[in-house]
Amino acid sequence: MKITIIGLGSSDVDQMSLRIYRALQNSEHLYLRTNDHPAVQMLDDEGIKYESFDHIYEANDTFTDTYQTIADILIEASKDKDIVYAVPGSPLIYETTTEMLLSHAKNSNDLEVEIIGGQSFIDVCIAALEIPVNDGFQILDGSNLRFADFNHHQHTLITQVYDLFSVSNAKLELLEFYPHDTTVYLVDKAGSIDQRIIKAELSEIDHNVPTSNLMTMYVPKVESNALDNRSIHHMNDLFNTLVGEDGCPWDKVQTHESLERYLIEEAFEVIEAIETEDDELLIEELGDILLQVGLHAAIANKDSYFDFYDVLSRLNEKLVHRHPHVFGDVEAETTSDVHQVWNKQKEKEGKEARVKYEKEYADIILPWMKETIHNKRALRDILEGEN
């Protein structure tokens, strides 16, 4: 059994290679992932019979289910005949059904998959939008966007945007990172005679959206201090600069020991912000705690002991290890259950004795810190009243 996967390219049939054209003409059993492609008109004009899977999209709730259903149908159809399966663009660029078929072929001895590539949407989008890829370039999947993937120092193409719903979902994710007035683009049928480019502010990009299987979103590279300031990497660079040879005269001579008092001071100020229920002050004071972490890490990095990312790595490992009820198969339904799990995980780390003393210290020190803060505020009120 054999499935030949053909890429129809990203635009008009004029861009199609002779090999692909002949493969379509000679196919006896042709399947299309979708008939929403300029090449389909050529198939109709030449009387080439095919079966499309557009109806599968309507019958499933998720793209994963849709693509798995298509792959299953193709595998079943290929059991008694060789078939040709045509997809938009290139079969190897963001084509989930190709991945599923290749995976099946790899794990079985009864299926052969041949791929005949077509022009990728990437090439035509770059040309249509005149993207300067040498400045930095990335491609993201619009159906699985994450805040951590965004990089405003890179020109970004976002695939898997087909309609108003998918474009709106991508917009909402992007708004978590980019300012609402960021200029973005939608390009539909790039490279074809029907090419259309929509330019708008991010907050309005879903106001005039076509439904198209050949649509891509583009977010240009942005130079922005505001976006830099939201980056943990930028923060780390700032601290390394401060303690470096050309850095701040005060910062670059600090040691872990010389900074001890400041960590205590900042802890007091965080508690005071909490006690006064001042959110803006709490933002600032939590930042000052992070300042202490960043400065300690930069000092250690200068001496080649560890760096900020070592601290992050240890923290993330600890979070996962101590939450097996979230990231593993341990059950914990109540707060009491969680405490037991937490302490059990600490025991595995050999920190059970430390847990006891840490709790005793906190029980003594925290009330004292709160009383000190209250007395400080009371004294300040008295002094301000005298003035």
From TrEMBL:
The keyword Hydrolase applies. PANTHER family: NUCLEOSIDE TRIPHOSPHATE PYROPHOSPHOHYDROLASE. Residues 254-327 form the NTP pyrophosphohydrolase MazG-like domain. Keywords: Hydrolase. It comes from the Bacteria. Gene3D superfamilies: Cobalt-precorrin-4 Transmethylase, Domain 1 (3.40.1010.10), MazG-like (1.10.287.1080). The gene is mazG. Residues 2-205 form the Tetrapyrrole methylase domain. It comes from Phocicoccus pinnipedialis. One of its GO terms (molecular function) is nucleoside triphosphate diphosphatase activity. This is Nucleoside triphosphate pyrophosphohydrolase/pyrophosphatase MazG. GO terms for biological process: dATP catabolic process; dGTP catabolic process; dTTP catabolic process; dUTP catabolic process; response to stress; TTP catabolic process; UTP catabolic process. The keyword Hydrolase applies. Pfam families: MazG, TP_methylase.
